[in-house]
Amino acid sequence: MLADALLLQLGYNATLVAIGAGLLGVASGVAGTFLFLRKRALVSDAISHATLPGVGLAFVIMVAMGGEGRSLFGLLLGAGISAAIGLLCVQWLTRRTRLGEDAAIGAVLSVFFGFGVVMLTVIQTMNAGRQAGLEGFLLGSTAGMLRGDAILLAVSAAAVLALVLILRRPLALAAFDPGYAEATGWSLPRIDLAMMGIVLVVTVVGLKVVGLILIVALLIIPAVTARFWTERADHVVIIAGIVGGLSGYVGAAVSATAPALPTGPIVVLVGFAIFLFSLLFSPRRGVLASVLTHLRYQRRVHVRQGLLALAQGQPIYEALTQRLLTRAGLILPDGVPTAEGQAAASKALLDETRWAIVRGDQAYALAATRYDGLTPIEMVLTPDQLVEIDGKIAVPRGVV
Amino acid sequence: MGAEFVALSLPPMVIGVLVAIACALPGNLLLLRGQALIGDAISHVVLPGIVVAFLLTGLVATGPMLLGAAGAAVIAVLAIEAVRRLGRIESGAAMGVIFTAMFAGGVLLLEQSDTSNVHLDVEHALYGNLESLIWLDATDWGSLLDPVALAGLPVELSRMVLALTVIALFLWLFWRPLALSTFDEDFARGLGIRTGPLGLALVIMSAIAAVAAFDAVGSIIVIAMFICPPAAARMMTNRLGHQVAWSVLFAALAAVLGYVLAGYGPLWIGASASVSAAGMIATVSGIILGVAAVAGPHRTRNG
């Protein structure tokens, strides 16, 4: 069943939905990256919660005009309008009052959502039984979607993706280097407006797939995940698109296998699984990599200190140091240094002595900043400089 | 209207007011610390906590659920902090990752487990059910003095009183260090105040408010009350003490007005049934904020 779903064998509608969700995921991953880099990730949370009153009002208006109230296009149009109003409220509160953006986001999302809930209860009393599954907009439900709705979803997801790709250059410029963007004649407010417009469209298209409570995850998680894998701007965008697309596609496909699996949570959890994997195992910024780096550093410190102790003829009591030196063949199990051990020890002592001179000499102030107790001095100074340093070492002269 | 009002409307209204004030009090400090969205995050993660507690105990009982919710709130705060530090990610995004993932997990658990025979669903978690907290033992206003009838008050009422007492006591005891560390953290640290644990304690107090309120009124009110009344109060004054007083006033006003509008408003315009009280209270708090933002004496940054 699962394999069938992933290989698009569950029928035409489910296939359309899965492809649409995948495209939507790519678009939201890319758009979310710009949002994340502008440090405005949670604005999308306000936008998505602000869609609910629009959905409710659109339903009421469509019923009042004699329709059935279930037209997905009409509902999404309403959602888009009220989300835009919510976004304007956030902007207005942030610019014109003393509230910070986070407070404005929280106020807008809770108030709009509260009003949306009022609208939902109004609809419940208005015509019991014909409630049109507006709850599906909370958590996303793509199971049993109508043909027309599935086509609408897939086409609009493709359109959003195209829009994001067309606007990617100014968006990337504003996200990575706002100062440069302004200096080269771009208008930052206008780029921000375009970015918010894209986020709004992604949110509205994603309403039916992921649901308004969780769509923010589809904008944030891919971008955050991508940051773990690369330091390069263009790569972040591409990886975020892949992560988002994968989450959307797999989530929608899995959700199609059973009616009790709401799409939104699965999409989010697929994304979160990828995030968790990246957090733990990504090669440079991952937790595992950090732990390994730390352990390697710890070992180097122990070996170094052990060698210095050997060089000065002091016994080594510390267990880890003993083990490390024995394993490297530098000391015998009883603590007596081998020939290599002696060589390494005198090398370490020489290094330390040279460093002591470098650090005491103003002429080498810059080099001295590189001292960390581990770096071999040959990596910092030239052979000529080393000869000069060695001349200053107080060597015990033979007594005649 | 006496008897009916005391039995059906008074308890939910009082609970609404208590919830609003309990959330608005810590909300004042969270707002000034730039942590306004903590309430949002906490109220989302309460759901998985409650679901897990239900799955472990098999009961829809208050004790385990509160424990589960509180546990989830603490786990979320720690996870957000861990993701922020380990991944070097700004806190807003870290929050967005964690609370959506935990909420998604909660929803999935809920849908997968057999909870159809108990009153536990996502909608309930979001909107709560304020209207159902009625006081069947009340006959008229005199019941307020009748110990037998008082014993039949909704349990949510006493729980909210307890939560509000704990929160108010915490704020009263730690008022000076809290205020100091909010406005000038370095200075506070210089005075020997341990700002880290103090900030965590404030978040825990917020979690207590959110968790206690959650069962009665759902998470929308909680988020709205953490932010809207303090934000509106901020437009009214420059003094922290006055701001807290204003926010309590606004919170109570929103709760009473919202409840009345939800319960009686539709009747006034000729409709038959009432609308969601939780949603209406959040809406009214938004209207109050809107008015304050347009006309408050201290609404701009430099005044």
Explain this structure:
Chain A is built from 19 helices and no strands. Chain A has 400 residues and is mostly helical. In chain A, helix 4 (51-64) runs parallel beside helix 6 (101-126), helix 5 packs antiparallel against helix 6 and helix 11 (188-210) crosses helix 12. The longest helix of chain A is centred in the N-terminal third of the chain and has 26 residues, at 12-37. The radius of gyration of chain A is 31 Å and the shape is elongated. Chain B has 303 residues and is mostly helical. The interface between A and B is large, with 57 and 65 residues.
Features:
heterodimer, A: 400 residues, mainly alpha, ABC transporter involved in vitamin B12 uptake, BtuC, 72% helix, B: 303 residues, 76% helix, globular
List how many beta strands of chain B DSSP finds.
Answer: 0
Strand content of chain A: under 5%
CATH architecture designation of the largest domain in chain A: Orthogonal Bundle
Tell me the major beta sheet of chain B: none
Could you report the average pLDDT of chain B, rounded to the nearest whole number? 85
Strand content range of chain B? under 5%
Alpha-carbon distance between the two ends of chain B: 46 Å
In CATH, the homologous superfamily of the largest domain in chain A goes by the name ABC transporter involved in vitamin B12 uptake, BtuC
CATH topology of the largest domain in chain A: ABC transporter involved in vitamin B12 uptake, BtuC
**Quaternary organisation:** heterodimer
Which regions of chain A have little confidence, pLDDT < 50, spanning 5+ residues?
A: none
What is the fourth-level CATH superfamily of chain B? ABC transporter involved in vitamin B12 uptake, BtuC
